[in-house]
Design a protein that fits this description.
- The chain has 593 residues and is of the alpha+beta class.
- Strands 11-15-16-23-20-19-17-18 form an 8-stranded mixed β-sheet.
- Helix 16 links the parallel strand 24 and strand 25.
Amino acid sequence: MNKEKSLDKLETSNIESVRHSLAHLLAAAVKEFYPDAKATIGPAIDNGFYYDFEFSSPISDKDLEKIEEKMKEILPSWKSFEGGEVSADEAREYWKNNEYKIELINEFEGKITFYKSGDFTDLCRGGHVADPSKEISPESFKLDRIAGAYWRGDEKNKMLTRIYGLAFESKEKLDEYLIQREEAEKRDHKKLGKELGLFTISDLVGKGLPMYLPKGNIIRTELENFIRSEKEKLGYSFVTIPHIAKKELYIKSGHLGKYGAMMPTMKDENGEEFVMKAMNCPHHFEIYNAEPHSYRDLPLRLAENTVVYRNEKSGELSGLLRVKSLCQDDTHHFIKQDQIQSEIKMILGLMQKVYGLFGFNDYKVEISVRDPKNKGKYFGDDSVWQKAEAILLEEVTNWGVPFSVEEGEAAFYGPKIDIKVKDSIGREWQLTTIQLDFNQPENFDMNYTGEDGKKHRVVVLHVAILGSFERFMGILIEHYAGNFPLWLSPVQVKVIPVRESHNAYAQEIYDLLKENGVRAEVDLADENLGKKVRQAKNEKIPYWIVLGDKEVESKEVTVEARGNPSVDGGEKLGSMSASKFLELLQKEIKEKN
């Protein structure tokens, strides 16, 4: 990379190298102030980089400013990264006072490389910019925060100090991200979930095990009913499976060997071992095999909204976004080989319809394939994988949306399409997954009788549209900032009498709404009107009705709408008959506007 790049704008393809280089620069700056600090590892990550250290005495976020200034002071002198190979013994001698680097060196297979820039040398495999002084703008990065991190993510190991940094292609992109993050903090689903009474997490029940409060359960139930209805229209058949299975089922499927640490187990009084399911496919395979099938039965689409359990590490848990107990809208399509194309097209159509309802119309697609350097991690031979990967590449190419190919991200039994969407503030979320599986049908001996009367191997598509309801709901809370559309809102209308003398009419209107399926509340508290209206706004209720003398006399209702949720205030819809307002509500709920 000899071509000089502008400090104002770096090529997007180069940003990972920039972030990796900045991790080295961070470690160099830390060593200037804390010579006895032990540097461990420092990778590039989404939005920036980090480096983990063992400090002899604690540091805090207050120390970041001076470290960042030192990074910018050093940067102009870093003209290159000079790499060189060393023997394991040489490496151990160089890092003899750093047990963390020694541990890494002892695990390396093949060559060991050091990279030096300025006066700083680190153990590294490479992947830097050629000339940091020219390719990294001092305005395009900043140190962000300090956190605790166990060495290598293992809770049994020592707690280290992790320093996070942000880095982007330009100062403008860094500023955009900081603005986006500030907005995201306001929309934090954990904060809004508490304020709006949607869910709770109890220390006694356990971290990563959210419980839905009545209002939150309404949203989840509406989502479940919606996705079930859309799938039933397309001919999906819903099934129900238990939450546990014999250990042997997951040994056969290969999941226990791959994910055993995440799958809780239990034994009965006879010593037989059972596993709490972390995935549903092996159960659905056994449902398929419970009856004979012919070509006339296919495609057979088995669907289920069901909970799975994954023993995620406590440090990775986050509200509804990362949990130990999650409900998936899971489906398995059992099809013939000549149905793969039409089935994927149908799935993508369903996905676009569903996402469009929530305003997710900007897609990014990743095709996850095998790691060609580590084929032993996967079921099946080369020919099967090559065929499956080629099919997915062709289908996404035909769809016509931009995509990338991600090596090493495939499931162990087949490649997959992962679809990401952007929310209302521009963040990306991975939602729909379509996995093409030729291997498990072989493993579970899943067949159908063809037109020729002979047995043929079925093909399986593993599909989730929303993913998990927990994660999808967390995304929606932040996407809407709690201002849910009418059909999803836990309370759709608040009825507010001005004074106690108007309570009887308020109760009458409330009863009318409830009898007609509208989720309504009536506020009969002995409070002033302003306070009641503010409460309705704070609860982000889509509509509220104010009832005073005029409304009682005319037998009408005065309606105000939430309007623009970013503005403090609502839209006045004026007075109308209760029946007219009910008609408007029912139409909006039905159309899911």
